[in-house]
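Record 1 of the preview.
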Amino acid sequence: MNKNNFAPLPPMGWNSYDYYDTTVTEDAVKANADYMAAHLKEFGWEYIVVDIEWYAIGAGSMRDQFQYIPFADVAMDEFSRLQPDPARFPSSADGTGFTHLADYIHSLGLKFGIHIMRGIPRTAAHNHCKIKGSNVTADMVANPSSICGWNPDMYGVRDTEAGQAYYDSLMELYTSWGVDFIKCDDICNTNMHKNPFAAAHEIEMLSNAIQKCGRPIVLSLSPGPALIEKAWFYEKHANLWRITDDFWAQLKDMFQRCELWQSHVSAGCYPDCDMLPLGELGKGFATEHHTYFTPDEQKTMMTLWCLFGSPLMLGAEMTLLDDDTLALLTNTDILAMLPPSVRPHQITRTDNEAVWYAKDDTTGTTYVALFNLSDAPQTVSSTLADADCPL
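->
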């Protein structure tokens, strides 16, 4: 069981990645925060998360060639800690990082989150930069053989006292900014390595740093798929962990993944089905489009995510949400299934159908969800007797 109570309910919020990729700006973050505060907050939506490469200078300017510009300039302080790009986040130009943006989001009654990559900036290692709280420099902390296969920004951190000091200094900085949520990437499954669990020590170091920092920062691990045999480790050190790689269209596959992880949902510990690709998506990828899911598939997705107890992170540009999508996101009957007191259990799954059962230990409410997984209409039925549970 996770040793903190920072996320008693599955976190619900917005993440900039699915619409903006690496190009989100301060104004865009504020506009989405304003929308959430006005239309979604009362239904439990509260996190605003700035995703990948908020520190990268010129991010997105070579999108026809690279998603992540190789070895691009980054904004960084004297202690090897990345800072927001002031061109996209002008309030950071005074050296206070995300403080002003976090203050704005907090003023709306919302919470602020950021995406980080596992490790220490490569440029810090190459230039022998300092680490706060240590006499050891970044080149001695960085492990040049531990790299991300799809992003060129970081080296892994060695499991040393100086390595822990680096992560401690990161959490000290993020605490001063007012960060409430961290999504750490290239750490849950290091799937470009022969050992997909190669970053386990960095998960533990990050968790330890959060415990020391004095702020209740929710920790989310990406990418998936998380390793089911390591469930105990994720539960001990994190609040969320991805059970799939980036989710765009493989909805049917999620039933198998949720079945695998159904017994590992508890207060503060949430297997994560990934972001909800609903509404308008893809602008930063140069393929702006409406969700590829049909209305029925969207209902299936929301029902499964909520019944399973997954965190809910919306990837859309919220200011462009249509009425049907907004209605789905604020459906209180569906959202009522989210709390971990609603214990999910899959009764049956075939290529054509799935049936899930849950009972809320707090309210006594019973839920039965019938899913048609085929492409044609069909009758799906079940009884509570099938679930081997009392009425």
